[in-house]
Structure formats: C-alpha cells, structure tokens
Amino acid sequence: MQCRVSSVALLLEFWVLSACALHQYHLVNMNLNWTAAQSYCREHYVDLATLDSMEDMQNMLNQTGLVNDHFWKGLTRDSVSSWKWSLSGSQFYREGETEYRNWAQPEPITGQPCAALVSNETGVWRDYACTNTYSFVCSNRGKDPGKPNYILVLGPRTWRNAQLYCRQSYTDLASIRNQAENIEIRQLVLGESSSAIIWIGLFKDDWKWSDGSTSSFRHWWSGQPNENPFYGCAFTHPSLSSYPRDPWHWISYPCSTSFYFICHNGSITNTTILSTLGTTTGSTTKTPTKVKLVGRVELVPNSPSDLEDPAMLDSILQQMKAAGRIPEHSTLRWKKQKDGKVFHKKEEEEEEGGRGDTCH
Questions:
Q1: I need a labelling partner for 55 at 20 to 30 A (CA). Which of 9, 28, 272, 356 fits?
Q2: CA-CA distances (angstroms) from residue 96 to 90, 100, 142, 175?
Q3: What is the domain class of 20-266 according to CATH?
Q4: How far apart are CA 292 and CA 327, in angstroms?
Q5: Nearest Cα to 86, choosing from 123, 121, 116?
Q6: Tens of pLDDT along 255-281?
Q7: Over the stretch 136-179, which tens digit does the pLDDT of each residue have?
Q8: Cα 257 to Cα 70: distance, rounded to the nearest angstrom
Q9: What are the residues facing 268 on neighbouring strands?
C-alpha cells in the first residue's frame, strides 16, 4: 500500500508521560505486631502495603480477597507534620505543583489541620477544624469528561465527609496546583454562592508510609486518627465502615498489637496509551515507571506558517489536547530534531504503507 503525502507536510514528534501504578499485594495470615510485620514484608516482599488511591485500595481487596479481620498496612505516625493534598498520585502533578499555597498572611496560625478557600477574601486560604461544616469543591479530573473539572457542592459537610462525597461521586476534594486554578475555583464559588468558606483538599498530616512513598492518600474512619501518639500505626477492618459503598476505612492503633497484615511486592504499571498511536505497552516493575511514547504528526496545506514561534507551537499542543486525543494526566511536548528544529518541510513523495503511517 502506498500513500501520497502533501509537499507541505511537517513532521513533528512528541512524547507523553503517563503511568498509573497499582501495587501487587499479598495477605499474610500471621498475627504480628506492626514492626514484626514490617520486617516480614521487607524480607519476603518489598514492604508493608502502600496505597495511592481508591483504585489502589480496591485493587488490594481484589488481590487479597475480602479480608474479614483487622490487618496492618504500611502507614505509621511521623515525627514531622506537613500539608498534603487529598488527591494523591504523581501523574496528576507536575514538578512543584504539590507545593503551591495561597495562605492568608500570616496563616496558617491556628494549628487546625484542614484548609478552606475564603472566596470573599480574594480567594486566600485559612486553616480550620476539620469538624466544621462548609460547602466544598470536588475535582472531576479523570472521572466524567462531560462535566467541568471542578464541581461546587453547596451542602455543608465536615472536611472528611466532603472528602468521602467527592471520592464517591467524582475524583476527590479539589487540589489547587497554581494561581490560575485558584482563581478559577474562586470565580466558580462567587458565580454560584455567597458562601465565603469552601473546603479544598489540603490537610495537615503526620503520617508516613513504611516504604518511603510520598503518597498522600488517606482513608480514615470518622474521628480518626487518634491524636494520642501512642496510637501510631494504621489498620483496617471492614466492619468499621458505616458507608456500604465505601468500606475499609482506617483506624490508628497501638503498634504493639498483633494483627494480620498485607505486604506489597512492587507495582503493576498500567500505561495510558494514545489511541491515535494505536500502541499498547505495559510493564511490571518494583517502582512506578514513566513511559515515553513518540508519535509523528503531519500538518498539511493551510497549516500555520510561523511554526518556529513558541507561542504557535504551544497553541497547537493545546488544540490537540482540547480535541480529546491526549490522556488527562499526560505531559505533551515537542521533540526537537538533531539540527535543533521541531519540524522539517517534506517534499512530495511516495512512502511504503508498511510503516504504519496514516494517510490524510
């Protein structure tokens, strides 16, 4: 098969980073305290179970069966507390975006562990008790493409109940990664409500994962974790959940208690593939891996002429994303040729169809 390419075809290469890592889990039917369970997992697997998301937790339950008993995972209390986003996952944040803050000065000063956006104060953030009840904003990214990225919910709830609602109905409580998103959420609130205080997904946390993972995913039961530092390890039990649709909440408990436990043995990486490339890849690794995909794009006559202009190149990328052909959490950029140019003009020629090129 031969296909004729326009004499003004422009060759572009791009690469996508997109990976969603799901751990491989193993239930160990031995009653051990948390420290002994950690040692066992490190000797026979990788470490005690780490969880990155609701999807990861469901994956754990699918792999280990319906565990009808207490079991340890890898979460333990840390000596240092820090602010984290409820929505976890490195695929959602570019470098530095998890550190964006818009605190009212000199906030945070009250020592309360949950953050809210104050819409009638230029959208600054303040810290409040998590048991306060406010309206809230959910993130819809990656959940329902037919709806906006942010959903305002006007019914007041505590921070944890707001988190639960967002995880059941959308993706999670809203993360705010930059000033533009902060402005977008404030305008959403001002456009639909006079409510001044709106929960967002930022919370203060003094817990860490045994394997050193930076995952901020937490799924505490109501009233948890216990503030007493003696309750320094986290376990799960199905009968503790008061939400049939969202079970397996977490409880803090003394680490010296003996329970069953779940280990993980690395990650199964499910790679998001561009449908336009018609490529399928995947791998099993001990740590999440990012995947590089290279594709060719041809621009035909009537294409923009000033393709050396960075603004024009960026505009084309944005149009490609807006067309829905690029996965939600991908990073897309031009790959320059050896001579430093992004594209080359291609004279009219005939090509063999066996290379998998697409005729337009």
A1: 28
A2: 11, 7, 21, 13
A3: alpha beta
A4: 13
A5: 116
A6: 999 999 999 987 654 433 233 333 333
A7: 999 997 677 778 899 999 989 999 999 989 998 999 999 999 99
A8: 11
A9: 22, 284
